[in-house]
Structures are given as structure tokens and as C-alpha cells.
Design a protein that fits this description.
Layout: E1 8-12, H1 17-28, E2 32-37, H2 40-52, E3 56-61, H3 67-74, E4 83-86, H4 101-128, E5 133-138, H5 151-171, E6 176-183, H6 192-196, H7 198-205, H8 219-226, E7 237-240
Parallel strand pairs: 1-2, 1-4, 2-3, 4-5, 5-6, 6-7
Helix pairs in contact: 3-4, 4-5
Length: about 250
């Protein structure tokens, strides 16, 4: 159902965390994956792992906040991408009163401007080569509801959701679908210690399923949006959060 043989998938922020998982998932389903991130040595080693598992991948240097870097990355490989996973992102946890302008810019430049630049560059190439495609922007449940100390991150992810809708409207005529995947709290190496703390355990108790998500539980939504199984889905946001957004206030 999710056969991606013959497809080329471009994944930003793929050196670690969910981006790395998304790239491995797409490769396992047959796509040739362009693994993009700033740490080239890390993604080159990751591509070797994908190849060792029977997949196909190549590494490309990418700074999503730099238009020249984005243009070079999207234009660097021979085949026009069929799938774009806009995953690169950063966070900043501090009270709004304490956020410096440079901190705000760093989050918005990466999480929102970066998503736009990658999507725009990819769509321009798709349109020029008369090729349809799927763009999956990784947003967050914090684009729908807020929590304390994450104002810049929440603003950036809310922007990604509305940007997704705007691009879907404009680019549907070219056969380019644009959707957002909004994960809830997913356990990763970066957050595992926090969720083992008292504060982390208290947050988990507010999730209706009373547990964190696993990276693999995002695969169904990702593959639906990336593949022909989702061919009539565009402008949508799919939430995968164990019911967190519908929990009582």
C-alpha cells in the first residue's frame, strides 16, 4: 500500500531524532532518500547504514535558513524529488519575557522560514519539470494549543500549519500536495531524561493514553501523506498525539 519504489524523498534535519527516523522509514519502503542536514559527516555515516540495510540514500549539506544553501541542496541531485519532508527545527524553552530578539529569530528562521524556503525551492523544481509531488511539513500539537515557556516554538509551528494550507491552495493546480504532520510528545533520546523526571511524568498523565508516543507510530501518517494512498489529501494537518489535543483543559 505504501510502495515508494522509484520515488525520491528529500528529508531535512535528518541527522538525528525524528528526521533520521523518517528518512529510514521512507528508505525501507523503497524510496531513494536524500538525507539533508548541516552535519555532513553524520548524515554520510547514516546513508551508509541505510545502504547496509538494503536501501538507497545520499547526503546533502543543508542550512534551511539560508536561501543559497536551500537552492543548492534542492538542485544538487539529478532527479526531481517526489517527496519533501520538511523536518528541520529547533526549540527554545524560556518565558516570553526572557526571549531575546536573536533567540526569536533563530527559532522562526529555522522552523517557519526554513519550511517555506525548502517547500518553495522544491515546488519550483517540480513545476519546472512538470512533476507532481508531496510536501509533508512537520508541525506539532503546539501549533494548535500552547504551553508555558514555548511561545516562539508554538508561534512557529502554528505558522507552519497555516503556511501548509496556503501552499496547498496555490500549488494544487500543479499536482503538488502540501500537508502537515503534527506529532504530540514522542519519546526520543533528547527528551527521555525529562520524561523520567517528576515534571515529565506529570505531563504524561495529561495525555489520554497515559503514555508517550513512539517514533514508529508516526509512520502511518507519514506514509499516507507521502504516497499515492493520500493522493486526494492536501491542505490537511494530521495529529498523532495519543489524544492530547482533545484532553480537557
Amino acid at each position: 500500500m505504501f510502495d515508494l519504489q522509484g520515488r525520491t524523498a528529500f528529508v531535512s534535519g535528518a541527522s538525528a531524532g525524528l528526521g533520521r527516523h523518517f528518512a529510514a522509514t521512507l528508505a525501507a519502503h523503497g524510496a531513494h532518500v536524500v538525507v539533508a542536514a548541516r552535519r555532513v559527516d553524520v548524515i554520510e555515516a547514516f546513508c551508509a547504514e541505510i545502504a547496509g540495510a538494503g536501501g538507497s540514500a545520499e547526503a546533502v549539506a543543508l542550512d534551511v535558513a539560508d536561501p543559497a544553501s536551500v537552492a543548492a541542496a534542492i538542485g544538487s541531485f539529478a532527479r526531481c524529488p517526489d517527496i519533501i519532508v520538511n523536518n528541520a527545527g529547533v526549540s527554545d524553552s524560556k518565558p516570553a519575557l526572557d526571549i531575546a530578539a536573536d533567540d526569536w529569530d533563530r527559532v522562526l528562521d529555522t522552523n517557519l522560514k526554513g519550511v517555506f524556503l525548502v517547500a518553495q525551492a522544491a515546488a519550483r523544481r517540480m513545476k519546472a519539470e512538470d512533476k507532481s509531488g508531496s510536501i509533508v511539513n512537520i508541525a506539532s500539537i503546539l501549533g494548535h494549543r500552547v504551553a508555558g515557556g514555548v511561545s516562539s516554538y508554538a508561534a512557529s509551528k502554528a505558522g507552519v500549519i497555516r503556511l501548509t494550507e496556503a501552499l496547498a491552495l496555490e500549488w494544487a493546480r500543479y499536482g503538488i500536495r502540501v500537508n502537515a504532520l503534527c506529532p504530540g510528545y514522542i519519546e526520543t533520546d533528547l527528551n527521555r531524561d525529562f520524561f523520567a523526571s517528576d515534571a515529565g511524568k506529570a505531563l504524561i498523565r495529561r495525555i489520554p493514553q497515559r503514555r508517550l508516543g513512539r517514533a514508529g507510530e508516526l509512520d502511518g501518517a507519514l506514509l499516507l501523506l507521502a504516497s499515492d494512498a493520500g493522493s486526494f489529501i492536501t491542505g490537511s494537518s494530521i495529529v498523532v498525539d495519543g489524544g492530547h489535543l482533545v484532553s480537557s483543559l
